[in-house]
Amino acid sequence: MKKIKIEKKILSENQRCSIENKSFLAERNKLCLNMISSPGSGKTTILVRTITELQGRIKIGVIEGDVQTDIDAERIRATEAPVVQINTEGACHLSAVQIKKALKKLPVDDLDLILIENVGNLVCPSAFELGEAGKVVVLSVAEGDDKPAKYPAIFAKSKALLINKTDLLGHVDFDIERAKTDARRLNKTIEIFPVSAKTGQGMADWYDWLTKTLKRTNSQQ
Amino acid sequence: MKKIKIEKKILSENQRCSIENKSFLAERNKLCLNMISSPGSGKTTILVRTITELQGRIKIGVIEGDVQTDIDAERIRATEAPVVQINTEGACHLSAVQIKKALKKLPVDDLDLILIENVGNLVCPSAFELGEAGKVVVLSVAEGDDKPAKYPAIFAKSKALLINKTDLLGHVDFDIERAKTDARRLNKTIEIFPVSAKTGQGMADWYDWLTKTLKRTNSQQ
């Protein structure tokens, strides 16, 4: 029983701070998405291509979450987009408190969209709200089509699923229809985008969704 | 300060049970390895091939850890090796208490080697001892060569690293020497095996290491 009480307390502290972040972003009319996946699914490559190809149309800032190193933040910095690195020093997910601090370091007023790249982990980050408007889960085809069934929480909670590395489809055993069906069984409204962030294939549909979601955010203000 | 105290208490409960498991296995002269990786690195495929190709030489039992489903246990069951499925129902790692219960369900006395397939997660499982003699980390080349640097804890703690899916090396950007160098910077004695569990390439070296490690276990008794 004691364990359950402690867990509730930590979650509610995170919850309180995530509500503050949500209000902060809503007052400023900024869309914020929390990107979650296994390590190596290609989140950073997706971010780099998205920032580069939407340059001049959508102003994007990034919060990079990593256990260690600023390898990913360096890749984002090369696009000239503003980026804040958070090193969790061993922790398995980002917290709303970390995002609150990071938002103070970003030029939020100059941005349209804030993309959070969470720690590479398909389990823990799904349980921690950061103040985002929605979660985006990324699954690489190299990881296998059974992942929505095996790690259901994040697929159930996400607004969009990017099935990345479709350029490898001829070389791995991945039934894209099985992954889609399993994801939709968990989440009827999830938007699914098969993409290759390496070649650019399919990315236009993801950009259209981002643009529409941004417009919806603006019209709600 | 309070948070630190709580964490210590939970870890020490797990620690106590992991020591019990270690004694249980040592008394019976059984080698137990804890396999850890991101989701979709190919742990189950490695297990299936290892069990099949070592049939008649090493008797292997498996403890399968998954957040949900028994998809992996079913694949192991097809090899006719004894397998116990643990569903963590959302938890991000296996615990020593779960392993203690699973060991009671396995025909331990009839086995030489017990392989634990932990939940797919490169972060959390590294912090929880289960009573194993050693950890084995699996990294798929599709995940990228920067993973030892970005997720150092598990590479620092493992006895062996399997770099899997080498059949994809022509199709992904993965510098095998960078991954090896970074892993050895964290862990001078780590044994590294580039393998393709799909094609079988490189698996013989892994089997040799397993055989030697088993012999060492037996001679220590």
Description:
The structure is a homodimer of 221-residue chains. The first copy, chain A, is of the alpha/beta class. The first copy, chain A, has one domain: 3-Layer(aba) Sandwich (Rossmann fold). The first copy, chain A, has 8 helices and 7 strands; from the N terminus they run αβαβαβαββααβαβα. In chain A, strands 3-2-4-1-5-6-7 form a 7-stranded parallel β-sheet, with helices on both faces. In chain A, strand 6 (160-164), helix 7 and strand 7 (191-194) form a beta-alpha-beta unit. In chain A, helix 1 runs parallel beside helix 4. The longest helix of chain A has 26 residues, at 2-27. The radius of gyration of chain A is 17 Å and the shape is globular.
Low-confidence stretches of chain A: none
Instruction: Provide the number of structural domains of chain A.
Output: 1
Distance between the termini of chain A: 43 Å
Q: How many DSSP helices of chain A? A: 8
What global shape of chain A is seen? globular
Summarize the biggest pleated sheet of chain A: 7 strands, parallel
The CATH homologous superfamily of chain A corresponds to P-loop containing nucleotide triphosphate hydrolases
Fraction of residues in H or I helices of chain A: 40-55%
The SSE order of chain A reads HEHEHEHEEHHEHEH
**Structural class of the helices, strands and pairings of chain A?**
alpha/beta
Radius of gyration of chain A using CA atoms only: 17 Å
Strand order of the largest sheet of chain A: 3-2-4-1-5-6-7
Which chains make the largest contact?
A-B, 38 and 38 residues
